[in-house]
Amino acid sequence: MEQTKRITKMKSRKLIIGITMLTIPVFAFFIIGVVLFSGGGLLYALTLGILMSLMSIGIIGTIILTQNNEKATTLKVKK
To answer: N or C, which end of the chain has less CB nearby within 10 Å?
Structure first.
């Protein structure tokens, strides 16, 4: 029982680290886009829309992954 709990905790930590590593480049690209297109206009609006859609997809994906991870851990602990 203790070994399965430790394994599942490590998996959830690795998942959280992977999620944060994916979001860092998105924020870096957002900052670069703001600096380049600080004058405003169509390009800025397009980059902002693309980045917001990517962030929303990422948030939805992380919610789904964490829910699947929690279900897997509860099943392993019950056995």
So the answer is: C
Q: From CA 73, how far away is CA 66, in angstroms rounded?
A: 10
* pLDDT score of 47 more than 70: yes
Residue 70 belongs to domain spanning: 2-78
Q: How many domains does the chain have?
A: 1
The amino acid at 64: I
Q: What is the pLDDT of residues 12-33, one digit of tens each?
A: 666 676 666 667 766 776 676 6
